[in-house]
Design goal:
By secondary structure, the protein is an alpha+beta fold. It has five helices and ten strands, in the order αββαβββααββαβββ.
Amino acid sequence: MQYRIWGAIAVAVAVIGAALVLGSAWTGSHPRTEKIIVTGLSQQDFVSDLIVWRATYVRASMTVAVAYGQIRADADRVKQYLISKGIPSSAIIISAVAINPMYRSVRNGDSYDQVFDGYSLSQNVQVESKDVDKVEMLSREISELIDAGVVLNSQPPEYYYTKLAELKLDLLAKASKDGTERAEKIAENASGRLGKLLRADMGIFQITAQNSNEEYSWGGAFNTTSKRKTASINVKMEFDL
């Protein structure tokens, strides 16, 4: 009888020991799964400090020589006008002249013939400046050149920011801080303690117009039509708990 008791005790001890060993092995091979996953957000409004304005003027004639003489005169007129408005010549870029033959359709019985109708010459002018307000106003007053006889097609200005790299780093730091604070609050509410950062993935950098319903894009929105913009970024963070 005594031997049976001691045998039962030995078996029980062996079972407990095996359970402890297996439990330790499981813990070692299967780390804790308690994690906190949060998304940190950051955004900032800013005003563009660089403007690019473009326009195209066109001349047409039956001969290249005549049209070229007219467009050369237009180029001088446009440049002098911009300089008179306070734009330095170094900020003015005038492209090469593009020459395109024109044709018109003339009915010939049951068909149409393509008849040569002269040449169309065009040239682009571009102004790039940090004097955003001046160039912006200039782009609205360009009708003065049209009144002077220049066949001008003005495009809307494009707005850029030269300190975008610094802004992006600042927003990334703020988004990381926001994510960490969110994770700490979750851990606190769960009566736990926030552990080490396991992973962090930066989201897409987005630039949209201020106070607009402009949508974000998967590749990152990059607004160039508004002078006042909003930059935003998010960071997905994973912490141990």
